[in-house]
């Protein structure tokens, strides 16, 4: 079985506090699946960037990575920027299996959870 890791990919922001929900999500996933390596990477403005995270995972012997964008929709960053980054990573690491999935907000279950949160905010 290949050594697998999950990379949560987020945009990034200038305010350090912006990353806190993503760090909590990373921790929740890691606690739920302790056998899985879970990393957080950012597109811009925050560290670490995706190429650095991938390089570190390759150095640790990981052979299969799943990149999960924690975005609500498939905007320009996910339609253009991320595929270019993934293509470059595949060229740099030809033996590495890299899977890129759709934005978290494209998943029906995520949308239902957000719906429930929004409806719950009316009458808390």
Automatic annotation (TrEMBL):
Keyword Lyase: yes
InterPro entries per record: CbiX-like (IPR002762), Sirohydro_Cobaltochel/CbiX (IPR050963)
Taxonomic classification: Bacteria, Pseudomonadati, Pseudomonadota, Betaproteobacteria, Burkholderiales
Classification via CDD domains: CbiX_SirB_N (cd03416)
Transmembrane regions: none
Domain of life: Bacteria
Entry keywords, A to Z: Lyase, Metal-binding
Protein name: CbiX/SirB N-terminal domain-containing protein
């Amino acid at each position: 079985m290949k050594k697998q890791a999950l990379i949560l990919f987020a945009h990034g922001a200038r305010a350090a506090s912006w990353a806190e929900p993503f760090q909590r999500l990373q921790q929740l996933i890691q606690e739920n699946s302790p056998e899985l390596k879970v990393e957080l990477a950012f597109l811009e403005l925050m560290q670490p960037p995706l190429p650095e995270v991938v390089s570190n995972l390759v150095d640790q012997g990981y052979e299969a990575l799943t990149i999960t964008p924690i975005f609500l929709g498939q905007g320009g960053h996910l339609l253009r920027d991320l595929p270019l980054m993934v293509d470059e990573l595949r060229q740099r690491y030809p033996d590495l299996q890299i899977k890129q999935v759709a934005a978290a907000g494209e998943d029906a279950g995520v949308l239902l959870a957000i719906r429930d949160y929004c409806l719950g905010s009316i009458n808390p």
